[in-house]
Design a protein that fits this description.
Helix content: 40-55%
Number of strands: 6
Mean pLDDT: 88
Distance between the termini: 28 Å
Shape: globular
Strand content: 5-15%
CATH superfamily: Uracil-DNA glycosylase-like domain
Largest sheet: 4 strands, parallel
Number of domains: 1
CATH architecture: 3-Layer(aba) Sandwich
Low-confidence stretches: 161-168
Structural class: alpha/beta
Protein backbone atom coordinates (compact mmCIF):
# COMPACT_ATOMS: atom_id res chain seq x y z
CA UNK A 1 0.00 0.00 0.00
CA UNK A 2 1.13 3.52 -0.73
CA UNK A 3 -0.07 6.33 1.54
CA UNK A 4 0.38 9.78 0.02
CA UNK A 5 -0.07 12.88 2.12
CA UNK A 6 1.14 16.40 1.64
CA UNK A 7 4.12 16.88 3.97
CA UNK A 8 5.07 16.02 7.52
CA UNK A 9 3.32 18.13 10.13
CA UNK A 10 5.00 19.66 13.15
CA UNK A 11 4.57 16.54 15.30
CA UNK A 12 6.05 14.26 12.64
CA UNK A 13 8.89 16.70 12.16
CA UNK A 14 9.62 16.35 15.88
CA UNK A 15 9.09 12.58 16.28
CA UNK A 16 9.97 11.22 12.85
CA UNK A 17 6.85 9.01 12.85
CA UNK A 18 4.11 9.92 10.34
CA UNK A 19 0.46 9.73 11.32
CA UNK A 20 1.31 9.22 14.98
CA UNK A 21 -1.55 11.48 16.04
CA UNK A 22 -5.37 11.63 15.84
CA UNK A 23 -5.11 11.81 12.03
CA UNK A 24 -3.28 8.50 12.05
CA UNK A 25 -5.85 6.89 14.33
CA UNK A 26 -8.60 7.86 11.88
CA UNK A 27 -6.54 6.81 8.84
CA UNK A 28 -5.80 3.36 10.32
CA UNK A 29 -9.51 2.98 11.11
CA UNK A 30 -10.34 3.85 7.49
CA UNK A 31 -7.78 1.30 6.29
CA UNK A 32 -8.89 -1.36 8.75
CA UNK A 33 -5.36 -2.00 10.05
CA UNK A 34 -3.63 -1.79 13.40
CA UNK A 35 -0.56 0.30 14.21
CA UNK A 36 1.87 -2.59 13.80
CA UNK A 37 0.62 -3.35 10.28
CA UNK A 38 0.49 0.31 9.30
CA UNK A 39 4.12 0.91 10.28
CA UNK A 40 5.37 -2.33 8.70
CA UNK A 41 7.45 -1.19 5.69
CA UNK A 42 6.74 -4.49 3.92
CA UNK A 43 3.03 -3.57 3.92
CA UNK A 44 2.89 0.23 3.74
CA UNK A 45 4.99 2.92 2.09
CA UNK A 46 4.21 6.35 3.54
CA UNK A 47 5.47 8.83 0.97
CA UNK A 48 4.37 12.47 1.31
CA UNK A 49 4.67 15.03 -1.45
CA UNK A 50 7.40 16.77 0.53
CA UNK A 51 9.68 15.28 3.16
CA UNK A 52 10.27 18.38 5.24
CA UNK A 53 7.89 20.28 7.50
CA UNK A 54 6.91 23.34 5.46
CA UNK A 55 6.03 25.55 8.44
CA UNK A 56 2.78 27.05 9.65
CA UNK A 57 0.57 29.41 7.70
CA UNK A 58 -2.58 31.35 8.65
CA UNK A 59 -4.92 28.38 8.41
CA UNK A 60 -2.64 25.41 9.10
CA UNK A 61 0.55 24.00 7.70
CA UNK A 62 2.00 25.56 4.59
CA UNK A 63 1.94 23.52 1.37
CA UNK A 64 4.85 21.23 0.55
CA UNK A 65 7.67 22.80 -1.43
CA UNK A 66 6.99 22.29 -5.14
CA UNK A 67 10.57 21.37 -6.07
CA UNK A 68 10.56 18.37 -3.72
CA UNK A 69 8.11 16.25 -5.71
CA UNK A 70 9.45 17.46 -9.05
CA UNK A 71 12.96 16.42 -8.04
CA UNK A 72 12.42 12.96 -6.57
CA UNK A 73 8.83 11.69 -6.74
CA UNK A 74 8.92 9.71 -10.00
CA UNK A 75 12.31 8.16 -9.17
CA UNK A 76 11.11 7.14 -5.72
CA UNK A 77 7.87 5.61 -6.97
CA UNK A 78 9.85 3.54 -9.50
CA UNK A 79 11.48 1.89 -6.48
CA UNK A 80 8.04 0.71 -5.28
CA UNK A 81 6.93 -1.60 -8.11
CA UNK A 82 4.50 -3.74 -6.08
CA UNK A 83 2.03 -1.08 -4.97
CA UNK A 84 -1.49 -2.52 -5.18
CA UNK A 85 -3.48 0.22 -3.43
CA UNK A 86 -2.68 3.93 -3.28
CA UNK A 87 -4.44 6.30 -0.90
CA UNK A 88 -4.04 9.96 -1.83
CA UNK A 89 -4.96 12.66 0.70
CA UNK A 90 -4.92 16.41 0.34
CA UNK A 91 -5.04 18.82 -2.57
CA UNK A 92 -1.33 18.78 -3.46
CA UNK A 93 -1.17 14.99 -3.46
CA UNK A 94 -4.41 14.77 -5.46
CA UNK A 95 -3.15 17.25 -8.04
CA UNK A 96 0.06 15.25 -8.54
CA UNK A 97 -1.64 11.86 -8.86
CA UNK A 98 -4.74 13.06 -10.73
CA UNK A 99 -3.67 16.11 -12.75
CA UNK A 100 -6.88 16.02 -14.83
CA UNK A 101 -8.86 16.64 -11.63
CA UNK A 102 -7.08 19.88 -10.70
CA UNK A 103 -10.15 22.02 -11.27
CA UNK A 104 -12.51 19.65 -9.46
CA UNK A 105 -13.44 19.96 -5.82
CA UNK A 106 -12.09 17.40 -3.40
CA UNK A 107 -15.70 16.39 -2.69
CA UNK A 108 -16.28 15.64 -6.40
CA UNK A 109 -13.01 13.72 -6.71
CA UNK A 110 -13.71 11.67 -3.58
CA UNK A 111 -17.29 11.02 -4.72
CA UNK A 112 -15.95 9.48 -7.94
CA UNK A 113 -14.01 6.81 -5.99
CA UNK A 114 -15.63 3.89 -7.86
CA UNK A 115 -13.97 4.92 -11.14
CA UNK A 116 -10.50 4.43 -9.61
CA UNK A 117 -11.01 1.69 -7.01
CA UNK A 118 -9.47 -0.63 -5.98
CA UNK A 119 -6.07 0.67 -7.12
CA UNK A 120 -6.45 4.35 -6.17
CA UNK A 121 -8.51 5.94 -3.44
CA UNK A 122 -8.75 9.67 -2.86
CA UNK A 123 -9.59 10.73 0.66
CA UNK A 124 -9.82 13.94 2.57
CA UNK A 125 -7.00 14.35 5.02
CA UNK A 126 -7.97 12.38 8.14
CA UNK A 127 -7.26 15.38 10.36
CA UNK A 128 -9.77 16.30 13.05
CA UNK A 129 -9.88 19.66 11.24
CA UNK A 130 -11.84 17.90 8.49
CA UNK A 131 -14.64 16.75 10.78
CA UNK A 132 -17.01 19.26 9.16
CA UNK A 133 -16.19 17.91 5.69
CA UNK A 134 -16.81 14.32 6.86
CA UNK A 135 -20.16 15.33 8.35
CA UNK A 136 -21.12 17.12 5.14
CA UNK A 137 -20.17 14.13 2.97
CA UNK A 138 -21.08 11.06 5.06
CA UNK A 139 -21.10 8.82 1.99
CA UNK A 140 -17.29 8.82 2.10
CA UNK A 141 -17.24 6.87 5.36
CA UNK A 142 -20.37 4.84 4.58
CA UNK A 143 -19.41 3.79 1.01
CA UNK A 144 -15.79 4.51 0.08
CA UNK A 145 -14.20 3.49 3.40
CA UNK A 146 -15.63 -0.08 3.35
CA UNK A 147 -14.37 -0.49 -0.23
CA UNK A 148 -10.97 0.86 0.83
CA UNK A 149 -10.83 -1.60 3.74
CA UNK A 150 -11.66 -4.44 1.38
CA UNK A 151 -8.94 -3.40 -1.07
CA UNK A 152 -6.40 -3.14 1.75
CA UNK A 153 -7.40 -6.55 3.16
CA UNK A 154 -7.02 -8.18 -0.25
CA UNK A 155 -3.65 -6.52 -0.82
CA UNK A 156 -2.45 -7.72 2.58
CA UNK A 157 -3.61 -11.23 1.73
CA UNK A 158 -6.66 -11.31 3.97
CA UNK A 159 -10.32 -11.74 3.22
CA UNK A 160 -12.29 -8.62 2.47
CA UNK A 161 -15.58 -7.74 4.18
CA UNK A 162 -17.42 -8.80 1.05
CA UNK A 163 -15.50 -12.09 0.83
CA UNK A 164 -16.25 -12.88 4.48
CA UNK A 165 -19.92 -12.07 3.94
CA UNK A 166 -20.14 -14.39 0.94
CA UNK A 167 -18.43 -17.29 2.71
CA UNK A 168 -20.67 -17.39 5.70
Amino acid sequence: MLIVGQAPGRRVHQTGRPFDDPSGVRLRRWLGVDEETFYDPASFAIVPMGFCYPGTGRSGDLPPRVECAVTWRDRLLQQLPRIEVTVVMGRYAIDWHLPAARRSSIADIVADWRSRAPALFVAPHPSPRNQHWLQRYPEFESHAVPALRDAVARALGGASHADRGQSG
